[in-house]
Specification:
It contains 14 helices and ten strands. The protein has about 425 residues and is an alpha+beta fold. The strands form three sheets. Strands 6-5-4-3-7 form a five-stranded antiparallel beta sheet. Helix 1 packs across helix 4, helix 8 packs across helix 10 and helix 12 packs across helix 13. The longest helix is centred in the N-terminal third of the chain and has 34 residues. About 5% of the residues have low confidence.
Length: about 425
């Protein structure tokens, strides 16, 4: 539909408003839309009942499904039939029906586009909040294009121009550029999301390597999409060299710590010195499981449930104790003291049996009791044992082993001594 046909249709529609036959068009349009709405609602209930009977789960018809286009497509079909009947029975003009057809068709296209977006991107907050805005924008653009009003609107926007330096830009070029950049970046994010999901699902690569490859793909595709969209709009990307130089100077002077954290993050991900799930100890007060590694920081969740955010630069330039770097197994030691009159062999045997009773203690390597020193108040013994789940914490298994040893010693009459001190009073104080 060209511009002349569009204006002719609008003029005809304006004249038809005062025509008594215009009421017939309104009634036909209302009946068509009502039938389309009723059939789409019936389809929703039927789909809901079938899903509940087969799977026992609730599912809303149309949400995230191509069936969302049922209403506009059915309305489009019914209006086409009504339009044919009007012409067949010579009931008058069909200008209102002619206007409704492209609007319903554009609504179907919008809902199909939203369906593609929902399946292209994982569920996220930005898509949920901007879905109505995106749908309205696409619907308006398609309605203008299908109705033929786009060309006069573009000519009007081209007349509004502004100067940026030596370059002259009009409002249509700016809007076209914004839309091009957004669409290109969205396509790049979708492609990077597909690649990232495939990398994360690959079991042949290390988890840290999969993360860093996914982020590199996303960054590279985003940059390529941005440069490509700027070229499509007509902006010379060589003018960005000044911005790149300024950014480099800024990184060298004021942003060197931030840049160091980003570089350190990629180093950690590439050399795999710290990986997701590792049990690390940063200092005497900070130890836990690595939950997340980003380009700038690493998140360590302590055994108390606190999330500690550590800059990557600190992890690269300081000593970090990684208890599960090469082997998830960790050796724990429980120390105690027995009296000098104790049967040491029996006591050491009871200590080993107490460790073997715990489900988290590994049988290989087996627990081992050692005599470490002859102290003032008794004999020092150490019980060493291994676990393979340090991320679950060590305090619980230590407590369980200590409690089992105490029960075994109490049953067999083995004494755990306490310090004894003798105080002697000599000199004048004793005489008094």
């Amino acid at each position: 539909m060209n511009e002349k046909q569009t204006f002719a249709l609008l003029i005809e529609l304006w004249h038809d408003v005062s025509d008594p036959n215009f009421i017939r068009q309104i009634v036909a349009l209302g009946i068509s839309l009502l039938l389309a709405w009723g059939l789409s609602r019936y389809g929703r209930r039927a789909d809901f009942a079938q899903t509940s009977a087969e799977h026992g789960a609730l599912r809303t018809f149309g949400t995230g499904s191509l069936k969302r286009v049922a209403f506009p497509l059915l309305g489009f079909a019914f209006i086409l039939v009504a339009r044919k009947l009007f012409k067949f029975w010579h009931l008058g003009s069909v200008s209102l029906l002619d206007v409704a057809l492209p609007l319903l068709l554009s609504m179907a296209l919008v809902r199909a586009a939203i369906y593609v977006l929902r399946h292209a991107f994982s569920p996220s907050g930005w898509l949920a909040t901007s879905e109505r805005f995106v749908a309205t924008g696409i619907w308006l653009c398609l309605a203008l294009y299908l109705s033929g009003l786009a060309e006069p609107l573009i000519e009007l926007l081209e007349q509004v121009s502004l100067h940026i330096g030596k370059q002259k830009l009009d409002l249509w070029t700016l809007l076209n550029g914004i839309v091009t950049v957004i669409v290109t970046v969205l396509v790049a994010l979708w492609l990077s999301g597909v690649v990232e999901r495939r990398l994360l699902a690959s079991e042949g690569l290390d988890s840290s390597l999969r993360v860093v490859l996914g982020r590199l793909v996303k960054a590279v595709l985003s940059v390529i999409a941005l440069l490509l969209s700027l070229s499509l709009v007509g902006i010379d990307i060589t003018t960005l060299s000044v911005f790149g130089g300024a950014l480099g100077v800024g990184l060298g002077l004021g942003l060197q710590r931030i840049a160091s954290n980003y570089v350190s993050g990629f180093i950690i991900l590439l050399d795999r010195s710290i990986r997701l799930g590792n049990v690390v100890a940063i200092d005497a007060a900070t130890s836990g499981v690595v939950n997340e590694i980003t380009a700038r920081y690493t998140v360590v969740r302590t055994l108390t449930g606190t999330a500690v955010i550590i800059p990557n630069e600190y992890l690269v330039s300081n000593i970090v104790r990684n208890e599960s770097f090469a082997d998830p197994r960790v050796r724990l030691v429980v120390s105690l003291q027995v009296a000098y009159g104790t049967d040491l062999e029996a006591a050491m045997r009871l200590m080993v049996e107490a460790a073997r009773e715990q489900a988290r203690v590994l049988a290989d390597p087996p627990p081992q009791a050692l005599l470490t020193a002859f102290a003032d108040s008794g004999i020092n013994l150490d019980l060493g044992f291994w676990i393979n789940d340090p991320e679950e914490g060590t305090g619980g298994v230590r407590s369980a082993v200590n409690l089992a040893i105490w029960r075994a010693f109490r049953t067999h009459g083995i004494e755990i001594p306490f310090p004894q001190r003798e105080v002697r009073i000599v000199g004048d104080a004793a005489a008094a």
